[in-house]
């Protein structure tokens, strides 16, 4: 569908931002990623153990208080990032690998086979990403893998399109024809002539996809898709602790702040990356 | 299912009591009114007719139907109780423990084998016809002929309905299966009446309850108007309300928010967390029930799941659970520690049996002794009532601490019991039971062969319960009842760690809503 | 390009959309019923006997060939029969007929709010591309796009419902009525949906406007002294209409997804809430029917956007 063309170009029209803003965004994103990845190693308590009264206000023992079942909010926070960050990263990686493969091959193929590939992957792109996740979650309840595959699937059409058009732009430059004339194999052409020239586009594209993936995985967590309770997950923490918001805001506010910080900073960085790449 | 229906039974029982009250000349009703509710016992203004009361309940989501015989949620019974007349309600304070509704009285033969039921004259349906003994008999049979949840089946289990005779329009004679002294409780606990020959529960069916149906949208709610020919009105009692709306709001937070946002006047089962929030808010009133009106939260240990067939493993599970912590951490102290026996606070409850302690070491020792190897089990639950899912969360942690590989299988509200045959196959399943007396409810749901037993099959205990119920002297009843409960305590497959009172909240204008233990609006008014 | 050619193109696009829908129906069916394997195993419980499983498989019709089952399902769907949900034995089609209008009202209102605001944002920022106003708007929309809908909704609830007590936090619809019978229940859900939609559409429109603003035609108008609102409305907006229609179509698709979250949060009786419940309940026929209907709705809107785009853009017509 043509709608996707518009959606794709939207992010590429650039706004230059101050170095400070980018540094802040980069730092924030790095902190969140570190917290998500290393959190489980430093968490003071088990994320599922009851350590006190429910919805207790912050104390020395529990700096962010306790949640709906009296579990340590800080520990759940430190454990709950993996589901968001790793799932989003895995999905983006999946979409990038498959997207680059399909995009480059379809870019080098003739016009008709190339368009055919795009049409096929576009089938998924016409329906809202969350719908894809819900369908998969209905088929595979409680599965984080289904979420990963679903988010990857949602990203795939965009990756394929962008990589295909980047490949075609490279391919029309003389040196691919020259390489062909030299009798280089197709694989050699891909490796030596195409890939080095589309890597930047691929990274910029992956950045945009990653920010969308974070958004989707957080929403999936909030809706209770993927691995079920008592697993900690920032999205679900928001959902399961709203009942106590009048008693203590931290069980909701802390994961919400982390999510917002992460999505916004990743968005800013991805946008900047895309803008820089477009400028070159 | 035992749990499920139990709860319902209890609830129904309560509802029945309410109905009865309505029919009866006032007084009981008034005194009762706020007593179980607690907290609102200050001087209530006198009943005032008129107005529309809007109430919110957990409900069963889109699966709701008007067929309360199969309706698994409290709301199903609350709704049915608005529409249909009840034989009576359980009321420990009333003579024989029962307040009658559409009945005038029940007489018992000296040998405890024949019950004579007298129908109240002049009970009319919404189509103008009059309730007869045939309708009552049909309604007693309906749980079997039309199918029902187990908690509705006690009348057919205790009485030989095939040999029942309709003596005249208002008299019904019921032979018992075996001699029982508590047949009135069985009959009045949860029986609602509808017309002879009813096979489908439709919005336009004739009904004889305090309200008539105006609108019913599954998963959304139902609205009612007063039934102006209701027999209770002639007796000078409710219903007072012009109209009533029962809304389904599964999410506890949203339900409470509907009250604080002024969208409803009464919210059922707000849970301990919201109770703490509302407590400090002068705009609303909390109504917390007292014993015996507390819902038991329990877990059925399925004997067809091999490790749990070993009594030592069952005992280990019981010792592994930190009940005090559940009361403290899940209910903020607003709950009672359970001793793996149902019906805490009722007269036949065996309170002489010592409280089972929290003893994880003993649990580990018992597991080692049983030597059944690694136990991997999913604890299935759903947020059906406040604290139920959280209790299961704690239980899972407790089990892990004694080396059982437990996982939490949390279903959405309304989904745990919706497929009953699947439910009773779960290895470790949460349930809740509304307050019902122990012996008749045991007979209804725990007797060998009942699906809700999770495979528990103890004819010896069944016999003891039968002995207790058939005893003509109190000490004989007590003795057999306690012996049965001790066996259940030692070898049973039901863990009951906690009893939770119902916590409702309402605006100060709401009066006369009863929790018996199912919420009844028959006497409710706005002032 | 003449009308006949345009009509032919519209027919081709429609046929393509139809094919996409067929492909989607296959994917939906496969993901929910074929790939997960033996649903009977899950439903029957861990300790069911093999005979019980067999019986359940037969009862559920799972003992037949998946392709056969798909064809039966699709054929029934074409006849307007999407089957019956497991939960409450409700006809899927009836649920759709009852709930879809409520959701369409929600999304339509959100669009009615989002489109003018997004257009204003797009024009203001796009015409000043690279300047301070643009930077502010772009950053703000980028932030807004990044915040998941459930957090936007939670924030709105905290402020306007729980905090100020101005609006209901629960979308209680009058029994037997529709959400628009008590319009106050629509306000917060619409607002929550509109925030993300406005930000996303605003960014896309800004890009289109910035492109158009850089064209010689607009440059010429500027040199003639046309500025401000007049420049925006007379010279830029008409040229942005083509892309804008598509932005709106894409925005609608986004709103359909957002509606699932927002309806769930507000207990709003729409199709998104039903879908979330159906997924939680593992109610496969309901999930299949609702996602198929939502896909068809989205496809239709995208298709209409596509055709409108063709009609509004002479250059594209030529290309086609």
UniProtKB/TrEMBL annotation, chain C:
Main localization (coarse): membrane
Coiled-coil residue spans: none
Membrane topology: Multi-pass membrane protein
Superkingdom per UniProt: Bacteria
InterPro entries with a match to the protein in the record: BPD_transp_1_N, MetI-like, MetI-like_sf
PANTHER family: DIPEPTIDE TRANSPORT SYSTEM PERMEASE PROTEIN DPPB-RELATED (PTHR43163), PEPTIDE ABC TRANSPORTER PERMEASE PROTEIN (PTHR43163:SF3)
Family named by the database record: Belongs to the binding-protein-dependent transport system permease family.
Record's protein name: ABC transporter permease
Species of origin: Polymorphospora lycopeni
Lineage of source species: Bacteria, Bacillati, Actinomycetota, Actinomycetes, Micromonosporales
